[in-house]
């Protein structure tokens, strides 16, 4: 095998780093570091970069420093390539349009690589295809890499992004190095994580550990890049994770969760495996702080599937007088017990990569006040006054302008197609959120008093109920279901199982994940668990609950339960608010509380059958006995309803 040797030059001179194959001088080609300071790389980062260079054969190396000057340089480059267009209506905002074949996460092409399949997914004898993640063998993973990566960066620059998930230096934070050939990824990672020189300095003083993240947008086999402004290889896209050596390899897609490797790949998939080993939790959860009229404050974490309103809840404007909500994070929580036995959470991210459609001054004014500075929009519509538009945004914005849709075509309402892609996004710095929590970067994290599970359930599931115990709460998380959304490649409004809102993000066997959750009770004081459903519809097909700011009424009940108020009544599925406990005074519309909290026996009998089937076919013998007992308990109580 011929290795291309690597010589990293600082500003074209000086520092030479040798590969193990340095003696193959004949084959060596000096690669200049045309931006950044290679002297800051630790030996293990250097050797990782060298490996990536040997494999991907980039033309240049850029070591990201995280500066504004660097961003300007990359923006100019992306403007020239046509990857982004400026949005002078706002301050330092940009719009990217992807290749239409690269618009969402690709769950079917996402794999976890372990020695045995059972480490990754529950293996059952039921003959039903597994829906709790995809396993790949080491051999097949190597084959997949060798088929795609050699020379995949030829003619391009390789960017080396040092990033921290969590505040730099926090005992709860972890570091990653993402190597990518996409300047869009660099700019997005600079918003979504703490990235740049400070992280390299932390690596030098800390334990030196980092998660290896290799990403290439790739080159199609036939050599034809359909949209040069957005190179990708959708047919051969693959996203690979090796928990054994904390490594991520992603090929073929430039889109969000497939390419910003700190987010789903690191913070959730690899993160959950590290968390299991180290005794903590890495979860697909928002974190909010809520202060009641007495000035008491608690923090709540909530897991909803993608595109089910986590960002809206995290930034809620309460309608209940005297309440205040502050945002710690909108997508991911890393939670660990401290030495006092309190469960403390950090948001490992530094920005919001939120779903744009549906976001407006009416639904999420705090998001709207966050996103029009220093933000990168993807696949939203463009207006002739150099702004953006999406479905749900106040229509005044487009009264006197022309709209170009996410595909770059003229658009008006009458053409019947959405102007923005349903999974179009804003990528914006969290610090700009007007209600960012004062403790959002506290290295110690914030103490979590309640965990919420929820999803889009049009029928049968009440607005809110409380788990009877920790084990019952774990069962509720395991049994979560929700209507499919556009965040991934699923089509239609089918109700899918999405346990813990983690189905696409488990880094290891779901049965073992459940045992890990159950074991948390022995490690410290566990929070109360609740299930919420803002999406129940009445017989007339309309939503029974107004949602958004009115959800503060549900948070108020949860707050009071956390404080020990006896404002509940037991039911077959868990504790419901007792008569009049949910504050309804001041609601704009009359609420059909009976319909909202009604528990139809036939619905719950069916739900139990469905959960039983799911556990049997998907989890099999890996289902912890305690969870099976909780299901049996529910079945028994439902039979007596
Ligand atoms: C996300 C997702 O992007 O869950 O957060 O898809
Ligand atoms: Mn998410």
Q: Can you give a write-up of this model?
A:
By secondary structure, the protein is of the alpha/beta class. Strands 1, 2, 3, 6, 7, 8, 9, 10, 11, 12 and 13 form an eleven-stranded mixed beta sheet that branches. Strands 14, 15, 16, 17, 18, 19, 27, 28 and 31 form a nine-stranded mixed beta sheet that branches. It has a five-stranded mixed beta sheet with strand order 4-5-21-26-20. It is globular, with a radius of gyration of 25 Å. Helix 2 packs antiparallel against helix 5 (183-192). Strand 18 (333-337) and strand 19 (343-346) form a beta hairpin. Helices cover 26% and strands 22% of the residues. The chain is built from 16 helices and 33 strands. Manganese (II) ion binds next to loops.
Short description:
The chain is an alpha/beta fold. It is 26% helix and 22% strand. β22 and β23 (388-389) form a beta hairpin.
Radius of gyration: 25 Å
Unreliable segments of 5+ consecutive residues: 1-29
> Looking at the structure, what is the overall shape?
globular
Care to count the β-strands?
33
Q: Helix/strand-derived class?
A: alpha/beta
| Beta-strand content bin | 15-25%
Name the average pLDDT: 93
Summarize the biggest pleated sheet.
11 strands, mixed
Give the proportion of residues in helices.
25-40%
Blueprint (SSEs and pairs):
Blueprint: E1 8-10, E2 31-35, H1 43-56, E3 60-63, H2 68-81, E4 84-86, E5 94-96, E6 110-113, H3 117-120, E7 135-136, H4 138-148, E8 157-165, E9 174-180, H5 183-192, E10 194-195, H6 197-205, E11 211-216, E12 238-242, E13 247-251, H7 256-259, H8 262-278, E14 281-283, E15 286-291, E16 297-303, H9 310-314, E17 324-329, E18 333-337, E19 343-346, E20 351-355, H10 365-368, E21 376-378, E22 381-383, E23 388-389, E24 403-404, E25 410-411, E26 425-429, E27 446-454, E28 464-466, H11 470-478, E29 481-483, E30 495-497, H12 510-523, E31 528-532, H13 552-562, E32 568-570, E33 575-577, H14 593-597, H15 601-619, H16 625-639
Parallel strand pairs: 1-2, 2-3, 3-8, 5-21, 6-7, 6-12, 9-11, 11-13, 16-27, 27-31
Antiparallel strand pairs: 4-5, 8-9, 8-10, 12-13, 14-18, 15-16, 15-17, 18-19, 19-27, 20-26, 21-26, 22-23, 22-24, 24-25, 28-31, 29-30, 32-33
The protein binds oxalic acid and manganese (II) ion (MN).
């Amino acid at each position: 095998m011929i290795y291309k040797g690597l010589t990293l030059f600082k500003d074209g001179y000086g520092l030479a780093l040798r590969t193990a194959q340095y003696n193959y001088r004949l084959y060596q080609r000096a690669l200049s570091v045309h931006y950044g300071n290679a002297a800051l790389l630790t030996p293990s980062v250097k050797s990782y970069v060298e490996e990536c260079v040997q494999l991907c054969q980039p033309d240049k190396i850029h070591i990201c420093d995280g500066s504004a000057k660097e961003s300007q340089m990359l923006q100019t480059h992306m403007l020239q390539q046509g990857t982004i267009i400026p949005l002078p209506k706002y301050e330092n905002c940009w719009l990217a349009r992807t290749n239409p074949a690269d618009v969402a996460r690709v769950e079917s092409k996402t794999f976890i690589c372990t020695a045995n399949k059972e480490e990754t997914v529950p293996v059952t004898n039921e003959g039903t295809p597994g829906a709790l993640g995809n396993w790949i063998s080491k051999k097949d993973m190597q084959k997949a890499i060798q088929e795609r990566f050699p020379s995949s960066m030829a003619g391009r620059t390789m960017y080396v992004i040092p990033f921290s998930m969590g505040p730099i230096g926090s005992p709860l934070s972890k570091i990653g190095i993402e190597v990518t050939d996409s300047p869009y990824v660099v700019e997005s990672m600079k918003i979504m994580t703490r990235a740049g020189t400070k992280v390299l300095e932390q690596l030098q003083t800390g334990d030196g550990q980092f998660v290896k993240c290799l990403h290439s947008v790739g080159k199609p086999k036939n050599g034809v890049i359909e949209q040069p402004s957005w190179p990708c290889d959708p047919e051969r896209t693959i996203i690979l994770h090796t928990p054994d050596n904390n490594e991520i390899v992603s090929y073929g897609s430039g889109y969000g969760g497939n390419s910003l490797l700190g987010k789903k790949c690191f913070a959730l998939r690899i993160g959950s495996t590290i968390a299991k080993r180290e005794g903590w939790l890495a979860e697909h959860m928002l974190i909010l702080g809520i202060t009641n009229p007495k000035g008491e404050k608690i923090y709540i974490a909530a897991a909803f599937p993608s595109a089910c309103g986590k960002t809206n809840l995290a930034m809620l404007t309460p309608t209940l007088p005297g309440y205040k909500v502050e945002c710690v994070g909108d997508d991911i929580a890393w939670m660990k017990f401290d030495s006092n036995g309190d469960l403390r959470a950090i948001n490992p991210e530094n920005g919001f990569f939120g779903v744009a459609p549906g976001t407006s001054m009416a639904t999420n004014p705090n998001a709207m006040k966050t996103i029009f500075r220093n933000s990168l929009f993807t696949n939203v519509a463009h207006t002739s006054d150099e702004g953006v538009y999406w479905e749900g945004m106040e229509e005044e914005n487009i009264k006197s302008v022309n709209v170009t849709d996410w595909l770059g075509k003229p658009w008006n309402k009458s053409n019947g197609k959405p102007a923005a892609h349903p999974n179009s996004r804003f990528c914006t710095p969290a610090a700009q959120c007007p209600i960012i929590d004062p403790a959002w970067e506290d290295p110690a994290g914030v103490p979590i008093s309640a965990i919420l599970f929820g999803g889009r359930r049009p029928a049968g599931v009440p607005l809110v109920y409380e788990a009877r115990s920790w084990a019952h709460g774990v069962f509720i998380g395991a049994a979560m279901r929700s209507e499919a959304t556009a965040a991934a490649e699923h089509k239609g409004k089918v109700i899918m199982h999405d346990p813990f809102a983690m189905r696409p993000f488990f880094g290891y066997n779901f049965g073992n994940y459940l045992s890990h959750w159950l074991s948390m009770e022995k490690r410290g004081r566990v929070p109360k668990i609740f299930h919420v459903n803002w999406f129940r519809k009445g017989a007339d097909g309309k939503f029974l609950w107004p949602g958004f700011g009115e959800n503060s009424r549900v948070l108020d009940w949860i707050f009071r339960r956390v404080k020990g108020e006896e404002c509940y009544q037991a039911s077959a599925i868990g504790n419901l608010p007792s008569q009049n406990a949910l504050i309804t005074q001041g609601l704009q519309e009359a609420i059909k509380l009976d319909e909202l909290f009604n528990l139809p026996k036939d619905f719950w009998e069916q739900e139990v059958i469905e959960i039983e089937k799911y556990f049997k076919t998907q989890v099999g013998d890996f289902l912890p006995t305690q969870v099976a007992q909780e299901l049996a308990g529910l079945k028994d109580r439902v039979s007596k309803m």
